[in-house]
Amino acid sequence: MLTFIEQQEMIAQLMRDIQRLQACANSTGQQLSADEALRIWNRHSQQKGACWLQLPPSDELLARVLEQGRCHP
């Protein structure tokens, strides 16, 4: 079981991931809500057999995943 501090750290990381997903989409001229970012990355992670994958270091790769996720809701 996670401690309170560990839970808070997980939530903070999730928020940073969502902000990065949104920023990446915005840099390519797309608007992406927090809910949509969460849905796209969650589905991508689950397709790879994970609960939540770490975001890739490359924004280019991340943008491709986001675009694919938007094309296949």
Short summary:
The protein is 70% helix and 0% strand.
Please explain how this structure is put together.
It is built from 3 helices and no strands. The protein has a domain at 35-73. The protein is mainly α and 73 residues long. Helix 1 packs across helix 2 and helix 2 packs across helix 3.
* Number of E strands: 0
In percent, how helical is the residue content? 55-70%
Binned strand content = under 5%
Topology as a string of helices (H) and strands (E): HHH
The helix count comes to 3
Shape from CA axes?
Answer: globular
- Structural class, please? mainly alpha
Low-confidence stretches: none
Q: pLDDT average, as an integer? A: 93
What's the story with the biggest beta sheet? none
- Alpha-carbon Rg, integer: 13 Å
List the helices and strands and how they pair.
Blueprint: H1 4-27, H2 34-47, H3 59-71
Helix pairs in contact: 1-2, 2-3
Characteristics:
70% helix, 73 residues, mainly alpha
